Each structure stands twice: as C-alpha cells, then as structure tokens.
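Batch manifest, entry 17 of 40.
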Amino acid sequence: MFSTRLPWDLRPNRLNELLEAKRRSGAAVLDLTESNPTRAGFAYPEKEILPALSDSRSLLYEPSAAGLPKAREAVAAYYATRGQTVAPERILLTASTSEAYSYLFKLLADPGDEALVPRPSYPLFEFLADLEAVRVAPYPLRYHGRWEMDLDALAGAVTERTRAVVVVNPNNPTGSFLKQEEHERLVELCAARQLAILSDEVFSDYVFGPDSRRVESLVGEEAVPTFCLSGLSKIAGLPQMKVGWMVLAGSPAWRRAARERLELIADTYLSVSTPVQQALPRLLAFGIGVREQIAARVRGNLEFLRSAVQGTSCGVLDVEGGWYATLELPRTRTEEDWCLELLGRHHVLAQPGFFYDFESEAFLVLSLLTRTEAFQEGVRRLLEQARTESGPLP
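Output type: structure tokens
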C-alpha cells in the first residue's frame, strides 16, 4: 500500500528509549545534542521581530516563484556584507535547505540517479534522496590531524548515474571547510564528468580562526554548475521562520537554464509564506545580534572542551567552524554503550559518531550550542566516566 520511497525502520533505538524513560521519570538530563537555537537561551529582539511580521503587505497575495524581489535583494545584501557579489536574480527562495535539496534532486536527477555525499556528515541526505527516488553514495572525509576530502575515492565513486556532488562547507559535524586545492580538483572532476556541485553553506558564518587555504563559499563559482544553500535557520538562529535560499552559480547560460526550470518547480509549490518574505530584510538585520551570541557561545564552549580534555584519555578532533565538536573516547566500549552509560548513570545525552557515519569508534558528537552551564557540567561528568575506563575493546 505504501510507497517504496519510505523504506525506513521507524522503531526507536535504545538511546531514544532510554531518553524517553528518563523524561517520563522527571530526570534532569544535560542535553549535549541541543541544535535548536530558540531553546538554547539566546536573547531574541522580540519587540523588533514580532512587528516585522505584521506588515500590511502580507495581506496581499502576490505569488513569485523565485521569491519576492525585496526578499531576494535582502539576501543579496547579506552576501555583500560578506564581501561577495550575488545578484538578486541568481537567488531563489525556499522554505528550508531541505526543500532546496528536494528541488535540486528534481532538477538534476531522474529516478535511480545518484548524488555523492560526504561521510561523515549529517544523516539527512539519504532520507531527502529517497523521497525523490534518488540514490546517495558516500565519499569519505579522512582525518589526519585535520579533515580532508579523499578526492581519489570521490573520483572512484562517480558512475554513469552520478549527477551531483554534495559539499557541506563547513561540514556537519566535522566542522571542516573545503580547501583551495580540494576545490580545484573537485571543479576539474565535475567539469570532466558533467556533474553539478551542491554546496551547503548554512554554517559558513561560524568560523573558529583564519585560514588562507579555506574556501568559505562557492557563490562565485563559474566553471561548473553550482548551487549554494543557506537560510535564516543558522545565520539568524530563526529556524521557525522557514525561509532559506539557493544561489545559482556557474556560467550565465547554465544559470538561465537552471533558473527557468527551478522556477517551474517552485511555482508548483509556492511554499515560502508572504509574511516571512516581507519581513526578511528586517529579520536578517535583527539576526546579526543573535548570530553574534551564537558565535560567542560556540567559541566559548569549544575553548572549554579543549581545555577540559587536557591530560585525559579523550581528545577533541580539529574543527574549523560550525556548531559541533567531535570528542574521541577510549575504545573501552562501543559508542552506543558510551552513550547509554552516560545517559543512564550520569544523565548526560550525547550523540554517537555512527549517527553521522563515522567509519571507526569511539567518537561522540557534542553540540556547542548547548547552554554554557549545562555544557560544562555535562563535559565534566563525561570526562569523569572516561577516567574510570581502561583497556581496549575486544
């Protein structure tokens, strides 16, 4: 009766079951997985944000497939503050980056075609692709003191059904940026095999230090078809406003052809609401203060984590940006058992590396967005448990 696009196992895992039991019992859990900025204790300018949504022009329905001109102009102005020139006609609004992916899979792929996605990375691509009857195939990121794309493996993963390469820049959860030499080889490969690049740049405003080798955005790419994704969810800490966008890059002729088709797709759904489009210029402006708070929080929590692990059996993998850090633990137990022990005994919730397709053990992914006091106490409890561990996994 149901579509084969929905083959997913819907049974809760052991960690979810234990978490639900803890919550039913009323236990206070230190959640080191918090990814919702609206629940993380930031000060939002309510007196400015709420009136922005009451614009009388929101009562007039003027559907625009790419998005209202004033909204796209506001996004272009955001890129200008980053030193990047993006014309409004290169911008197409969506309700989220997830919706942008669905549009792009429709644009680029037929059923059974493939997109290459990084591993480790956020575990959403397979679900989005399945819903479009598209397959995903991984290409590895390797860690040698810093994260690097395995470009030889990437090239080897390309098949006649491959249509696009997804780059998450910076990656979630590794926090690694695309480097100039990687970018050059990636463009060369995509040009030779006629592949598009999908560059997910939602975390690109959160950077932990300068690096002259880093490519912070592909909005200026001209050599190959490229789509750069971002939105209010991360850059302004406003996921509930449900507005994102894609920037079309590549040759002018390619951009025109892609835009025509994307507008047809978008016109079929018209999912971005008028009120949030009318408010977008002000929401982007008000979001600067929220973004500064988030940036200060994630930097502070990362500094604490790096200091706290000194002299312990744990280590923090190199991270360049984003909202997450990866903690390497003694291989005395599996990641799942680590998480169950931390939650069961210490009321600390963390995510195991295998949620993000880490290829080896034992890693935990911690959200640097977590409130400072909860983060520090959760890390202390975690490290106390690590001090009691000894011996390798059998």
